[in-house]
Amino acid sequence: MKCKEAIIFIHEYMDGDLNEQGRTELRQHLTDCIACRQRMDQYTRTTALIRSMPRTKVPEHLTNSIMQALPGTSKRTAWTRWVRQHPAVTAAVLFIAVMLMSLVSMWDGDNRLMVRGNDLDQLVITKDQVIVPEGHTINGDLYVENGRLVVEGQVNGNLVVVDGQLNLASTALIGGEHSEINQTIDWLWFKMGEWMEAVTP
Amino acid sequence: MEGLEPRLAKLARNGDREAFRELVQLYKDKMYHLAYRMLSNKQEAEDVVQETFLRVYTNLNRYDDTHKFSTWIYRIATNLCIDRLRKRKGTLSLDAENPEGEGIDGYDMLSSSDPLPEQQLVLSETQQLIRDAIEKLPAKYKSIVILRYLHDMSLQEISNVLNMPVTTIKTRVHRGREALRKKLDQRHFF
Ligand SMILES: [Zn+2]
Asked: Quick one: B119 and B73 in the same domain?
């Protein structure tokens, strides 16, 4: 057997594909040929070295990033799934967020006292409050935003206070309806209702 | 009795995400090691693994469970790795049997491997030697050497994964083995 043939036999042997007769022939050649013996030894050491290679650490987040990359797991649906699983936490977080927002907006100069209605000359208006003094009469509706409305006299119409407070003295006479609307709070409940409806099955 | 993997694949196909997660758990490490060894770059390895599972997921309805799931997923991952190696700018097609001189294959400069690919592991000098030698193998030999020796596949299994005749795989194993031996010999390993 020539060395060229022997090398093919060596590979076959290493693949586990050399039959008994081939093995005998190869063995015969190897006893006579140092070069081929050396070659076979080098292949053996090469493959042993490959097998000994250490494995790198697999990133821990791999499973999650795989799952998140799947269609139908966009960030948005992942978020709504979370909301669905934690409704109470979500409500609390939203509430705090909205309260913070309204706190912030209180400090921006946009919340000036605003008064709308008839007979405004009948009113006493200070920096943050509107007073209908005792003995005075307003004919029509009165609308106050961002302030307190104190009624001691008479209003022949509806009272609406937005983002403020309504104080009715015992002497007050109101012809129509009176209501207080706190925009941020109403907005909060409105929004929360909307959100919860969107995410709960 | 139906095997675990076809069963999980079937459940996943019908929308059971937890079943798919189990498949991910079963194969993510193997796929990562394969991709990392092929590409020598952690980010790219991760990208390939993600892409592999994405393809598995979107093609679940085409998975034919008379075939081994492992063959299928290995095929997807191996092909993605080979594609990436091909796209790497300036990568020499080492089929053009370049005479193996020290660093003359132009590969050294163009390798996109991490600067410290295995920094968490202290590699012995010989381990670095074999790692570099494998890294520089042409893709078609590299994939086969990795599947054969790092994933313990038989020649028949590799032939199924790569969809190539066993005789071709055999020739490539022999050539890959010889290329690595030569490289180690040049570096005076023996
Ligand atoms: Zn010989």
From this structure: no
Task: Please give the Cα distance from A176 to A198 (Å, whole number).
Answer: 38
Residue B155 lies in a domain: yes
Q: Which residues of A touch B145 (CB under 8 A)?
A: 50
Q: What is the pLDDT of residues B65-113, one digit of tens each?
A: 778 999 999 999 999 999 999 988 555 544 444 433 333 343 434 445 5
Residue B95 lies in a domain: no
Contact A11 B24 (CB under 8 A): no
**For A153-165, how does the pLDDT look when each residue is reduced to its tens digit (9 = 90+)?**
998 888 888 888 8
Look at residue A48 and tell me whether its pLDDT is greater than 50: yes
Cα–Cα distance measured from residue B25 to residue A137, given in angstroms and rounded to the nearest whole number? 78
For A143: left if phi > 0, alpha if psi spans -120 to 50, otherwise beta; the answer is: beta
- CA–CA separation, B166 vs B159, rounded Å? 5
Q: Could you give the count of Cα atoms lying within 13 Å of B176 in the half-sphere of its Cβ?
A: 26
Chain A residue numbers with beta carbons less than 8 Å from the beta carbon of B17 are 67, 70
Model pTM?
A: 0.62
Q: Which of A38, A39, A50 sits opposite B150 (nearest CB)?
A: A50
**Count of alpha carbons within 13 angstroms of residue B138, beta-carbon side:** 17
Query: Does one domain contain both B113 and B186?
Result: yes
* ipTM for the whole complex: 0.81
Total number of residues shown for chain A: 201
| Chosen domain end from B32, B65, B90 | B90
CA of B176 from ligand 1 middle (Å) equals 20
Facing B145 at nearest CB: one of A50, A63, A70: A50
For chain A, strand residue ranges (E) read 114-117, 124-125, 129-132, 137-138, 142-145, 148-151, 154-155, 159-162, 165-168, 173-174, 178-181
Helix/strand/coil for B141? helix
